[in-house]
Design goal:
Blueprint (H helix, E strand, L loop, with lengths): L1 E4 L6 H11 L12 E4 L5 H7 L4 E5 L16 H6 L4 E4 L2 H5 L7 H13 L3 E6 L3 H5 L3 H15 L7 E4 L13 H18 L2 H6 L1 E5 L7 H5 L7 E3 L8 H6 L6
Parallel strand pairs: 1-2, 1-8, 2-3, 3-4, 4-5, 5-6, 6-7, 7-8
Helix pairs in contact: 5-7, 7-8
Bound molecules: 1,3-dihydroxyacetonephosphate.
């Protein structure tokens, strides 16, 4: 699976232009890849109408529960009602931006509620540079993953994204070996703490400075089941990243 996270970017005009380019995507009938685009919530409906069905649409956040007097928020019910299938939850920018500071607990609440309302959920985890340098990569990712795993009863609609924070928007992509090492560790954790079946079936995407230049090597790693792409998903050659998974298993 390949996701494009447009973050807080886009105008009507830039989205029309980008969607026209993305609409040229042709995948073989046996293509083994799902594609999801997550524009801002404001642009989600417009993006849905501009892209062919091969693209699924997501948003980048949702509220922790039922809607109501929560100024500025969007509930899982609203997202579902608009025909949007996916929601990204717990992106590092929401975990770490000082005015947001979403906790593991908040993220777990969002995951549980969005799944209950029938959305497909892409929770994100990943360590900071200082955590990696302190040898805490596995500890941090396990903690974040545990909070999510405790909130999930059925993994069918969950795709996990591993996004090391030091690789996001920095151009410092994880090496294929670094990505593979963490993905394999996460899968082993899921096998030990959830089930062997879930570990085998759950897709774990890598995110952080993925581009048309580095996607090929990363896609060959056995435990890297796809990408969640930021900056490079705002450009027409995002299609190259999608196609790196066209025939990968
Ligand atoms: O945060 C990301 C996707 O969610 C990754 O962003 P970049 O691809 O711009 O590094």
């Amino acid at each position: 699976m390949v996701g494009g996270n447009w973050k807080c970017n886009g105008t009507k005009e830039s989205i029309e232009t980008l969607c026209a380019s993305l609409s040229t995507l042709e995948l073989p009938s046996d293509a083994n890849v799902e594609v999801m685009i997550a524009p801002s919530s404001l642009h989600a409906t417009m993006t849905r109408s501009l892209l062919p069905e091969v693209y699924q649409i997501g948003v980048q956040n949702c509220w922790t529960g039922k809607g109501g007097a929560f100024t500025g928020e969007s509930s899982a019910e609203m997202i579902k009602d608009l025909g949007i299938d996916w929601v990204i939850i717990g992106h590092s920018e929401r975990r770490h931006l000082p005015i947001l500071k979403e906790s593991d607990e908040t993220i777990a609440q969002k995951v549980a509620y969005a799944l209950e309302k029938g959305l497909k959920v892409m929770p994100c985890i990943g360590e900071l540079l200082e955590e990696r340098e302190a040898g805490k990569t596995n500890e941090v990712n396990e903690r974040q993953l545990k909070a999510i795993a405790d909130a999930v009863t059925d993994w069918t609609n969950v795709v996990l994204a591993y996004e090391p924070v030091w690789a996001i928007g920095t151009g410092k992509v994880a090496t294929p070996e670094q990505a593979q090492e963490v993905h394999a560790h996460l899968r082993a954790w899921i096998s030990d703490n959830v089930s062997v079946e879930v570990a085998q079936s759950v897709r774990i995407l890598y995110g952080g400075s993925v581009s048309p230049k580095n996607c090929e090597e990363l896609s060959k790693q056995p435990d890297v089941d796809g990408f969640l792409v930021g900056g490079a998903s705002l450009k027409p050659d995002f299609i190259t990243v999608i196609k790196s998974y066209e025939t990968s298993s």
